[in-house]
Amino acid sequence: MKKSIKKFGYIMSIGVAMTVFAGCSAAKTTGQGNQANGNTIKVGVNMELSGAAGGYGNQQKQGIQMAADEINSQGGIKVGSKTEKIKLVIKDNKTSTNTSASVAAQLVNNDKVSVIVGPATTNDGTAQIPATNKAKVPFVSPSATDPDFTLQKNGKAQPYVFRACYQNNFQGSTAAKFAAKTLKGKRVAILADNSTDYGTGLAKAFKNAFDGKIVANQTFAEGDKDFNAVLTSFKNKKIDAIYAPGYYSEIGLIVKQARQAGINAPIIGSDGMADPKLAQIAGNKNANKVYYTTPFSTKASASNPVAKKFMALYEKRYHAQAPTFSALAYDSVYMIKDAIEREKSADSTKIAEGLAQIKGLKCVTGTTTINKNHDPEKPIAIEQLTNGKVSNTYESK
């Protein structure tokens, strides 16, 4: 099938804060955060390298390592009159909130990092906030999307929390407008992951923004395998589409079982589907008319010089097509580099100030500006799968 890029009939820009970096080899902790005092910049990595989100975490680790190696090969990061190289301190939080909190404390108190990249998920990222706030060390999650993730209870931005991916409200509303305006859907069923704030938040945002009728609103839990009963109920409601926000492990089975049940309506989802494993689970012949929102598309990025370079380097290094989560993590490192060089300091509080001031930075996932809520404003795309492969990309404009 001919591959093409199509435009949305509406304009979108999104928030995303990017992965945080740094600290120094001999940093010291004071009331002013971790102070840089060496010749290398320590970057903590608190990541889901095993457990339920291990697939995403390992992709992000690849992007982080790739960016750090590239920067180091070019001499490092300019910190005032000096140039310092990055030293990554990588730890596995095992997709556990308790472990994530413990890892964060180790990174800021024992390893003396001045910034942390990760975690990948909202729950694990939220768990590390108390430790990083106390130490005044910023972190950026490449992919936490809950709307309140970067906010305090008073509605103001968390001073040390940033992210590299747009929030659920934007992603869900984009999918709703796409379903109504591009796919011309009038009757949509929702089948959302209720195990995390990710799935429930996206479902709520879609429902609030959809200009049509929600004929069913069902949920599933992480680890569920059999979706036939609920899919049969959808089939009887004459649906035009299914909105299924969640992760590829369950959504792949939903796609497979929907097609086997004779449901040929479009299945729309979120960036948790942006992984080749989705088609592997669903089967290529079943992965048709499948759409998902994503901050990175290999098709949409073909005209972006930063993205083209990244994709070529990734393929050379890992012998595979670059995934969304590696792109977000790679961008995060470069945003941190930008923050350090602008502030001319690798002190943790200065890095936080620099991250908050990012404007118009050219990134793999699009030109990025950090807004007052520490969310990035950047483009969004929707990819379409045909026979398990990305066939079309619908871009914001």
UniProtKB/TrEMBL annotation:
> Keyword Signal, does the record have it?
yes
Q: Which Pfam families match?
A: Peripla_BP_6
- Keyword Cytoplasm in the entry? The reply is no
Q: What InterPro entries has UniProt attached to this entry?
A: BCAA_transport (IPR051010), Leu-bd (IPR028081), Peripla_BP_I (IPR028082)
Leader sequence residues: 1-22
The record places domain Leucine-binding protein at 40-388
Q: Which UniProt keywords apply?
A: Signal
Q: Which family does it belong to?
A: Belongs to the leucine-binding protein family.
User: What is the protein's given name?
Assistant: Branched-chain amino acid ABC transporter, substrate binding protein
Organism of origin is Pediococcus argentinicus
